[in-house]
Amino acid sequence: MKHQEILLKLLEVTENTKDSFQFLKLFRSIEPEKFAVIYADSGTLMESAEALLYNLKLLHKLDLYPVVVLDKDGISYTNLFYRNHNKEETSSILPGKLFRHSQDLAGSVASALAEKKLPVFVAEEKGAALFSFLTKLCSTLKTKKLVHLYTRGGIYSEGNKISIYDVDSSVVADREDSALLNSCLELYKNVKDKEFGIAVTSASSLLKELFTIKGSGTLLRRKNRIDFIADVNSVSKEKMNLLIEKAFQRSLKEDFWKQEFAGIVLESEYKGCALVKNTPFGTFLSKFAVDEIARGEGVGRDIWDDMIARFPILFWRARKENTISKWYMKVCDGMQKEGIWIYFWIGVKEEHIPGVCSFLKNLPQDLESPKSEPL
């Protein structure tokens, strides 16, 4: 299969061109052993071995080498990953290198990668011992993500799938998922890496989990540190410009920072921000920008929640074609369409709505080109 055909297969599965290429670029930029550890239990292998095989083959053809861990009970299914009895190369065989009872995890992975094969470990352990092995593996490789393949496709609470689970959260999982959630939380705590995350998803949704911002299952992560900075001159303008211009794919006008802002709600590593102004009608959201990859980490939601808690009366505008406008429609109290714009507000008094709409209508643009999507 040609490289172009492989990319088309990826896009066919993920249904998102922009996200997929961004994530592929990111994954290829890090050391191959840090990309991901994928654990498939025996239930997943019995139910979805074919889907898992297909997705792992596609990852390999994209020059990505996830470290695969299989349950001992599911080892009978590993014939899907290796050569047939005639030792012939067939399209159904995944180029993997199998390890059992390995004492040198890093060395084993390195030997597989040197042969351009996927490292595949057979977990002899069960229960707590299994999660201890996964903890050791993720810590040793300094992997960025553990993907736990689970037949239910995610963690549920009160019958609803949890998209992002903050590890300090008090949300209670449904009884069927509580043991898995507790084990994952313990694993997360023991890995002790702020960039580490755990995704619980199904084998068939593996690529969507890896290559789209929305993901497909449940992402366990620590809530991002969000600060409110009243003095905009105390932040790095260079980093702010990079964040905003990359998010909107447009250049800021030269006099942008000459405006008077009430402050910035900022993620500590400049992954996202919300710039606000004071007005007679309430707080105006001037810019809401989040790094593309960080959107999948819940950065935007964390900033939004902090901002709404600080500024309960808020209004802003977005272009009609802006993809985030659909989400704005869900979180706003009211909206009005006018020309190329949609005006949104939260907590605004009814008598102030005409003034808010007039303010937004006469607001000059802060960005140079009309091709993208400013607020």
Automatic annotation (TrEMBL):
Pfam families with a match to the protein in the record: NAT
This protein's record includes keyword Transferase: yes
Domain of life: Bacteria
InterPro entries: ArgB_GNAT, Vertebrate-like_GNAT_dom
Domain N-acetyltransferase: 224-369
Database matches in NCBIfam families: PRK04531.1-5
PANTHER family documented for this protein: N-ACETYLGLUTAMATE SYNTHASE, N-ACETYLGLUTAMATE SYNTHASE, MITOCHONDRIAL
Protein name as it appears in the record: Acetylglutamate kinase
Organism: Leptospira yasudae
